[in-house]
TrEMBL record, chain B:
PROSITE patterns membership: MPN
Pfam families: eIF3h_C, JAB
Keywords assigned by UniProt, alphabetized: Cytoplasm, Initiation factor, Protein biosynthesis
Compartment list: Cytoplasm
Native organism: Hibiscus syriacus (Rose of Sharon)
Cellular component terms (Gene Ontology): eukaryotic 43S preinitiation complex; eukaryotic 48S preinitiation complex; eukaryotic translation initiation factor 3 complex
TM stretches of this protein: none
One of the protein's GO biological processes: formation of cytoplasmic translation initiation complex
Subunit structure: Component of the eukaryotic translation initiation factor 3 (eIF-3) complex.
Compositionally biased spans, kind Basic and acidic residues: 268-279
Protein family per UniProt: Belongs to the eIF-3 subunit H family.
Chain ranges of the MPN domain: 26-159
Single annotated GO MF: metallopeptidase activity
Stated name of the protein: Eukaryotic translation initiation factor 3 subunit H
C-alpha cells in the first residue's frame, strides 16, 4: 500500500531505442593489425574510432587509429597529444570523419574502460565503445558495441552503465574484394577478369542446381512444400522478360555484333600502333 | 708484401657492389588494399594519391601499410604543409610500430589513363631517395564491373637511364632496342594477411554463396563503360596522329635542308674552281654561320611512346570487357532457351 514511497530505478531506454552502429571492414582490419603490432608489454590495444552519425541515429564507423597507452592495476594513461595529432592529420584528408567513439581489444568491459569512456565522452556527446575479442575466448571472435547509459534513481544520477547496442557489420567492401583473397594468409596472384567471371558463373550454376533439386524434392513429396519459397521461385522465373524468340535472338545478336565490332576496332588500332612504331624508330637519316 | 696483398683484397671486397636482386613480386596486405579502395572510392571521380609503407626484402617488396594524401589545393604555401603532413603521419605511425619506410605511392585513375609525363617525373623523384619503389594504380571505375583493377608498376632500368640523359632520339632508342612496351614494367601482386585477420574474415563471411561482386559481374549493361573507353581511345588517336605529323614535318624539313646543303656545296665548289683558275685562295667548303647548316633538333619521342602505351591499355581493357560481355550474352541466351 505504501506505493508512493518507492522510487524506481529507471533504465532510460528511449535514447538507445534507435541507436545502432555500422562497422566497415576496414576498421576491423585496422584493429587486428594494431593488435598484432602492439608493444610487448601491453595486453590490449586502445584506439579512436572515426566516422559519422547518420540522420536516423545510426553511427557509421569508417576508420580507426590506435593510440599508445599504458595501463596498470587501476590507472590508465592515454597519449592525448598523439590522439589529437593523428585526428588533425586524418581530418586533413577527410574532413567529414569525426570522432564517434573508441575501441579496445579483449572480451568484456573493465573498470578501467569506464575511465577511458569518460575521457572520450568529453570529446563527443555520446561515444560508442567497440570491443573486438582478438583472443577468441568464446570460441569465436565477438565484436560488440556499447554506449553509456545513465542510471537514475528518481532524479539522482547513480552511475552509468555500458549497454549493448545492435551492431551491423557492413561487409560489402570486403565482398567486392572477394573473401577468397581476404581469408587465406597468402594468395599467389590476383584473379583476372575471366577467372572471376568463371567463379561467378559456377556459383550461379550451383544455385540453380540447388533450386532444381528443391523443386524435385517437393514434387516427389520428400520435402514439405513451403509456399513462400514457391512464390519466390515463381517470381524469379517470371522476372525473365517475355520476348518472342525472334525478338530475343535479334537483341542478342545485335549486342554480339557490337562487341565484335569493338574487338575488331581494337585489333586494328594495335596493328596501327605496331606500324607507327616501326616507322618512327626505323627511319634512318641518310 | 703480404700486408699489401691483403689490403688490396680488402679494398677489392669493399669495392664490389652488392648485387641488387631484381624485383619480382609485390606483396600487399589485405589492409592496404582495403584502405586504397576506400580512399579512391570516396573521392572518385577526383584523382587521389597516397603513400605506401613497407619493407624491401630480397626480390619481394612488402607493402604493409599506407596513408592517403590530402587533396592539394593550387597554392604554393601548401608545399610545406604537405611535407609536414607526411612527416607527422610517419612519426605517429612509427610510435605504433608500423613499418616506417616509404616504398612507393599509389594513385587512382580513370579508365586506365595514367601514363603521363608527371608519373615518370614522380618516379624519378622517388628513385633518387629509395632504391626500389613501386607505384600502385587502382581504377575505381572498373571495380563497378566486378573486377579488382589493381596494378603495380615500375619504370624499367634502361628507360630510366635514357630519361636521365634526356635523349630520345631514334638512334639511341635503336641502340638500346627500346620500344614503347619497355617503359613500364608490370609486377605481379601477391596478397598476404595476418592469421588473426584471416580468422576473423573466415568467421564474418556471409552465409550466402552469392556476393555483391557476383551481382556486379553479371550485370548486362556494359555500354556506358565501353562508350567512355572508345571516347578516350579516339582522343588518344588524335594525339598520336598529331605526333606523327610532327615527325613527318621534321623529316621533310631535314631532307629539304640536306638538299639545300648539297646545292650550296656545289656552288662553293664551282666558285673554288673559278678562284683556283684565277689564282686566289679557295674558300672553305663549310660555313657554320650559314643558317642552312644549323642542325634541326629532333623531336622527342617520349610523348608518342606514352600515348602509344595508353592506347594499348585502352585496347586491352576493351578486349577484357568484350570477353566478359560475350560470356554474359551467351549465358543469357541459354537461360532463355530453357
Amino acid at each position: 500500500m505504501a506505493n508512493g514511497d518507492r522510487t524506481v530505478l529507471q533504465f532510460s531506454t528511449q535514447s538507445t531505442a534507435n541507436f545502432s552502429a555500422e562497422v566497415h571492414p576496414l576498421v576491423i582490419f585496422n584493429i587486428c593489425d594494431c593488435y598484432v603490432r602492439r608493444p610487448d608489454q601491453a595486453e590490449r590495444v586502445i584506439g579512436t574510432l572515426l566516422g559519422s552519425v547518420l540522420s536516423d541515429g545510426t553511427v557509421d564507423i569508417r576508420n580507426s587509429y590506435a593510440v599508445p597507452h599504458t595501463e596498470s592495476a587501476d590507472q590508465v594513461a592515454l597519449d592525448i597529444e598523439y590522439h589529437h595529432n593523428l585526428l588533425v592529420s586524418h581530418q586533413k584528408v577527410n574532413p567529414k570523419e569525426v570522432i564517434v567513439g573508441w575501441y579496445s581489444t579483449g572480451l568484456g568491459v573493465t573498470g578501467r574502460s569506464a575511465l577511458i569512456h569518460d575521457f572520450y565522452s568529453r570529446e563527443v556527446p555520446n561515444p560508442v565503445h567497440l570491443t573486438v575479442d582478438t583472443g577468441f575466448r568464446n570460441g569465436e571472435g565477438t565484436i560488440k558495441a556499447y554506449v553509456s547509459v545513465n542510471l537514475a534513481l528518481g532524479d539522482r544520477q547513480l552511475a552509468s552503465q555500458f549497454q549493448e547496442i545492435p551492431l551491423n557489420l557492413r561487409m560489402v567492401e570486403a565482398e567486392l574484394l572477394g573473401f577468397d583473397i581476404l581469408k587465406t594468409t597468402s594468395v599467389d596472384k590476383l584473379p583476372t577478369d575471366l577467372e572471376g567471371m568463371e567463379v561467378t558463373m559456377q556459383r550461379l550454376l550451383a544455385l540453380i542446381d540447388d533450386i532444381y533439386k528443391y523443386v524435385d524434392d517437393v514434387v516427389e513429396g520428400r520435402v514439405a512444400a513451403d509456399n513462400s519459397i514457391g512464390r519466390f521461385i515463381s517470381d524469379t522465373v517470371a522476372a525473365l522478360p517475355k520476348l518472342s524468340p525472334p525478338a530475343f535472338d535479334k537483341l542478342v545478336n545485335d549486342s554480339l555484333q557490337d562487341q565484335l565490332l569493338l574487338l575488331y576496332l581494337s585489333s586494328i588500332t594495335r596493328t596501327q600502333l605496331a606500324l607507327a612504331e616501326k616507322l618512327n624508330t626505323a627511319a634512318q637519316i641518310l | 708484401m703480404a700486408a699489401s696483398s691483403t689490403a688490396r683484397s680488402f679494398l677489392q671486397v669493399a669495392a664490389t657492389e652488392e648485387v641488387v636482386s631484381p624485383l619480382r613480386v609485390v606483396q600487399i596486405e589485405g589492409l592496404v588494399i582495403l584502405k586504397i579502395i576506400k580512399h579512391c572510392k570516396e573521392f572518385s571521380p577526383a584523382l587521389v594519391t597516397g603513400q605506401l609503407l613497407g619493407l624491401d626484402v630480397g626480390s619481394v617488396l612488402e607493402v604493409t601499410n599506407c596513408f592517403p594524401f590530402p587533396i592539394r589545393e593550387e597554392d604554393e604555401e601548401i608545399e610545406a604543409d604537405g611535407a609536414n603532413y607526411q612527416l607527422e603521419m610517419m612519426r605517429c605511425l612509427r610510435e605504433v610500430n608500423v613499418d616506417n619506410n616509404t616504398v612507393g605511392w599509389y594513385q587512382s585513375t580513370i579508365l586506365g589513363s595514367y601514363q603521363t609525363v608527371e608519373l615518370i617525373e614522380t618516379f624519378m623523384n622517388y628513385q633518387e631517395n629509395i632504391r626500389r619503389c613501386v607505384c600502385i594504380i587502382y581504377d575505381p571505375s572498373r571495380s563497378n564491373q566486378g573486377v579488382l583493377a589493381l596494378k603495380a608498376l615500375k619504370l624499367s632500368d634502361s628507360f630510366m637511364e635514357l630519361y636521365r640523359a634526356n635523349s630520345f632520339t631514334g638512334e639511341k632508342l635503336r641502340e638500346k632496342n627500346l620500344s614503347w612496351v619497355d617503359i613500364f614494367e608490370e609486377i605481379p601482386i601477391k596478397v598476404s594477411n595476418s592469421a588473426l585477420i584471416s580468422a576473423f574474415m573466415t568467421e564474418l563471411e556471409s552465409d550466402t554463396s552469392v556476393t555483391q561482386c557476383d551481382y556486379d559481374r553479371l550485370q548486362l549493361s556494359s555500354n556506358p563503360y565501353m562508350e567512355r573507353n572508345m571516347e578516350f581511345l579516339i582522343e588518344c588517336m588524335d594525339d598520336l596522329s598529331m605526333e606523327q605529323q610532327k615527325f613527318q614535318f621534321y623529316y621533310r624539313s631535314l631532307s629539304r635542308q640536306q638538299a639545300q646543303q648539297q646545292a650550296w656545296l656545289q656552288k662553293r665548289r664551282s666558285e673554288n674552281m673559278a678562284r683556283k683558275a684565277a689564282g686566289e685562295e679557295p674558300l672553305p667548303e663549310e660555313d657554320p654561320t650559314n643558317p642552312i647548316f644549323k642542325p634541326i633538333p629532333e623531336p622527342s619521342r617520349l610523348e608518342s611512346f606514352l600515348i602509344t602505351n595508353q592506347i594499348a591499355n585502352y585496347c586491352n581493357q576493351i578486349n577484357g570487357v568484350a570477353g566478359q560481355s560475350f560470356n554474359r550474352l551467351y549465358l543469357m541466351k541459354s537461360l532463355h532457351d530453357n
